[in-house]
Design a protein that fits this description.
It catalyses: Mo-molybdopterin + GTP + H(+) = Mo-molybdopterin guanine dinucleotide + diphosphate. Mg(2+) binds at residue 97. 30% of the residues lie in helices and 22% in strands. It has 197 residues and is α/β, with parallel strands linked by helices. The chain has a single domain, classed as Spore Coat Polysaccharide Biosynthesis Protein SpsA, Chain A (Alpha-Beta Complex). The chain has a 7-stranded mixed beta sheet with strand order 5-4-1-6-8-7-9, sandwiched between helices. It has a two-stranded antiparallel ribbon with strand order 2-3. Helix 2 packs across helix 4.
């Protein structure tokens, strides 16, 4: 099983590449790698990024977004990795702007996926907050690849376009016994400052 850290966004709202922002003395991407490594669950951690940032990452393989689909958001990153590593039975996808992710949350989501993958033939299992799916903290089956490819060819390359066309299910973030905001995106500098307090 492989993990994909999505780190190719423009970070316009944040003002600088979020992957290299720091929390607790580690860059966001390093923090996520540390959590993923600690689980002994993934045989490879891959960073999906763009040509500009690719050489800046250390400690993980980097796959640059496919040239024909660059600048098409998270789907482009997932597609670019899946296309090269189609043999993997499952991919865990995490956005780099979610640096507070915990091993406990990932383990619980994995258990949910395993329990439902055969009976419900799930292709995507992720978290949701209330009624809002969080497709950038989710497990994806390689069966999603053709649907992602079609979405990227269309003029709607939103994550919703994919998960509404696949067998997907979501568990609420409140089901994880953890009172931190481990699932929160850091979109603005003030988001990071509020976490550091």
């Amino acid at each position: 099983m492989k993990a994909i850290i999505l780190a190719g966004g423009q970070s316009e709202r944040f003002g600088a590449p979020k992957a290299f922002a720091e929390i607790d003395g580690k860059m966001f991407y390093e923090q996520i790698i540390t959590v993923l490594d600690s689980m002994n669950m993934f045989n490879e951690i891959i960073i999906s990024s763009n040509e500009t940032l690719a050489s800046e990452f250390k400690g993980a393989r980097v796959i640059v977004d496919d040239s024909e689909h660059k600048n098409k958001g998270p789907l482009s990153g997932i597609y670019s990795v899946m296309k090269q590593d189609f043999e993997s039975e499952l991919f865990f996808v995490i956005s780099v702007d979610t640096p507070l992710i915990t091993a406990k949350a990932i383990s619980q989501l994995y258990q949910f996926m395993v329990e439902h993958v055969i009976e419900d033939q799930l292709d995507i299992a992720g978290f949701k907050e209330g009624n809002h799916p969080i497709p950038t903290i989710a497990f994806y089956s390689p069966n999603c690849l053709p649907i992602i490819a079609r979405a990227l060819e269309s003029d709607d390359y939103s994550m919703r376009h994919v998960y509404q066309q696949t067998a997907s299910d979501w568990i609420d973030v409140s089901s994880v016994d953890d009172d931190t905001e481990w699932y929160k995106n850091i979109n603005y500098p003030q988001d990071l400052e509020s976490i550091k307090k």
